[in-house]
Each structure stands twice: as C-alpha cells, then as structure tokens.
Write a structure and sequence with these properties.
By secondary structure, the chain is mainly β. About 15% of the residues lie in helices and about 35% in strands.
Length: about 100
C-alpha cells in the first residue's frame, strides 16, 4: 500500500484565539459531523491535547461501524496542531444475520 497524504486548510474570518479552542477539542467533532454518521469520540474526556496523544473514534458508514485512531503529531497551543490518521487501526465490523 502506498502512502497517501491529504492536507486541508480551513480559513476562518476570526482571530485564532477565538476559534482554536473549538477545533482543538476533539469532542467538538461530534458537533460538526452529520448526525447520520453517528460519530463518537471513544477516548474518555477530558482529552489532554499534546504531541503523541491518541484519540479513538467510531462512526457508521452505510450502517457498518467503523473505528480508528488518530495521533496528535504536533501541538502548538493557539497556533496549530497536526493529527495523523492511523490507517492500521481501522476496524470495520460486519453484522451477520
């Protein structure tokens, strides 16, 4: 499997200190993810954001539960963070009748 990199940048017309806290709190992902995905942060709160932190998630895609981990690669409070999706941690459960 070849490595693929997806980079995204979001520009908001607000000061960094106004919005950084919202995006730095992994629990807020539940608020901005469409309800039909039933997205959940599995790591118990409060999550200490720091380089090396692991955060577990789960959601449903076409009815199948999918879980995975992300690792905080870099953490600069009020300036930036980088999270890395660990594709090796992906679990897709299949319901059998």
């Amino acid at each position: 499997m070849s490595e693929q990199i997806l980079e995204r940048e979001q520009v908001l017309p607000r000061a960094v200190d106004e919005v950084f806290g919202f995006f730095a709190d992994a629990l807020n992902l539940e608020a901005i993810t469409p309800p039909l995905l039933r997205f959940q942060v599995l790591t118990p709160a409060p999550i200490e954001m720091r380089a090396g932190a692991l955060i577990a998630y789960r959601m449903r895609l076409r009815g199948l539960p999918v879980s995975w981990l992300t690792r905080i690669e870099a953490w600069g409070p009020q300036s930036r963070f980088i999270d890395i999706f660990d594709y090796r941690s992906v679990t897709i459960a299949r319901m059998l009748a």
